[in-house]
Amino acid sequence: MASANLPRPGELREEKIPFLEPGDRLTRDEFERRYSAMPNLKKAELIEGVVYMPSPVRLRRHGWPHVQFITWLGTYALATPGVIGGDNTTARMDLDNEPQPDALLLIEPTRGGQARVSADDYVEAAPEWVGEISASSASFDLHTKLHVYRRNGVREYVVWRVLDQQLDWFVLEAGQFKPLGTDDAGILRSRILPGLWLDAAALLRGDGLQMLAALQQGLASPEHAAFVLKLQAPPAQR
């Protein structure tokens, strides 16, 4: 007689996959296995081998700033064939780090970008540009995450500190993140994505139309036109 504790012949026992919990120390494969088993989970990240699960999102501290951020980046990507963006898109950086940044931009791999898109549609390696919306300068994004992005080769990293009313734009130089300065008009101009211009003062005071006006100037610049032509050129001519 078969034991009551064993499945009967031909019967498969359903595997019980543990839930993700904040603070779990997991391999990337195990993190993805547990994440996939929780279809209602909105966001979880593996940072330096530790699971982080953000608290519910507030409207003025995150939701509304996120809309503004994505509007700015989406406008740029739509005007720049060969560049695509992501909103809360998982990125497999390395075996201990699988963040889900608030926003990212990458040059398509077929256009010479440094990241790849996996067969299961995840970003692999570091996108060129990453942005996070944070509460303050004491946030996780300006410390542990910053080092992860730097080490993995994110070329530019932006942190909008909503409570501090500050925006930090870093550029990767010689393996270190250095602050990006403004031009004479107070505009931040991306070095890796020509034409991606930001009037940070307008963004911080909530003047979205002025923010988009500065971006339109960037999209109309000779640098952006040359960048688009470069992205469209055959690989041997880039």
Description of the molecule:
- The structure is a single chain.
- The protein has 238 residues and is an alpha+beta fold.
- 28% of the residues lie in helices and 21% in strands.
- The strands form 4 sheets. The protein has a 6-stranded mixed sheet with strand order 3-5-8-9-10-11. Strands 4-7-6 form a 3-stranded mixed sheet, with no helix packed on it. A two-stranded antiparallel ribbon has the order 1-2.
- Helix 2 runs parallel beside helix 5.
- The longest helix is centred in the N-terminal third of the chain and has 20 residues.
- It starts with 27 loop residues before the first helix and ends in a 6-residue tail after the last helix.
Largest sheet: 6 strands, mixed
Helical percentage: 25-40%
Decide which structural class fits the backbone. Answer: alpha+beta
Element order: H for helix, E for strand: HEEHEEEEEEHEEEEEHHH
Cα end-to-end separation: 72 Å
Spatial order of the strands in the main sheet?
Answer: 3-5-8-9-10-11
Radius of gyration: 21 Å
Give the helix tally: 6
How confident overall, as mean pLDDT?
92
Total count of strands: 13
Low-confidence blocks of residues: none
Measured by DSSP, the beta-strand proportion falls in 15-25%
The coarse silhouette is globular
